[in-house]
Amino acid sequence: MSLISKLFLLFVGGTVLIGVLMGINSDNGVGNKTSNILEKNKTELIGKVNFDGTQFHIINEEDKDWKSCYFTVNGKYRFPTNPTSSRFGSIKSSETTTIRASEFTLDDGTRYNPYSIKPKDFSASCDNRFGFWEWN
User: Fold this and answer.
1) Domain assignment present for 5
2) 131 with 124: CB under 8 angstroms?
3) Which CATH number does the domain housing residue 97 bear?
4) pLDDT at 127 exceeding the cut of 70
5) In a domain? residue 116
6) Whole-angstrom distance, CA of residue 131 vs CA of residue 45
């Protein structure tokens, strides 16, 4: 077999291999979108947070409980204060948990004051899943 024939076969074989690999990884318009939605639903908490001026009302809208949680207001006030050493127990499926705004603190112990600081956002982390809500 001549050198040109070998190069031609190598080129054709490589092209076919690349085509097969690209076909396996291509977006067919349905599969990847569905898997992304499923993956998002596995990592994103589904719920609501309401603030009445003094308390945060956290609503779990999922079919399963949220466990081992911690919460943050305005990106820096946390409850519990040190989430690496303690966590909030759980929020049962379809139930609401209420936490007083003054329970949220900075690292130095400064408490969140709802009378002087407007809540702009609220985040929750439970079982390595995350939720984020904003207010105007």
Assistant:
1) no
2) yes
3) 2.60.40
4) yes
5) yes
6) 5
Give the residue among 125, 79, 132, 71 at the shortest CA–CA distance from 105. 79
CA proximity to 14, closest of 25, 22, 2, 26: 22
Please say whether the dihedral angle defined by the alpha carbons of residues 118, 73, 105 and 57, taken in this order, is positive or negative. Answer: positive
User: What's the number of domains the chain is made of?
Assistant: 1
pLDDT digits (tens, 9 = 90+) for 2-11: 655 554 445 5
pTM equals 0.66
Predicted pLDDT at 136: 73
Residue 57 lies in a domain: yes
Alpha carbon distances (Å) from 32 to 29, 39, 55: 7, 10, 40
Placement of tokens 């080129």 in the chain: 11
Strand partners, 132: 123
What range does the domain containing 81 cover?
A: 46-134
**pLDDT digit string, tens, across residues 40-52:** 455 799 999 999 9
Burial of 83 (0-12, 13-18, 19+ CB in 10 A): middle
For the chain, what percentages of helix, strand and coil (3-state, to nearest 5) are there? 30, 35, 40
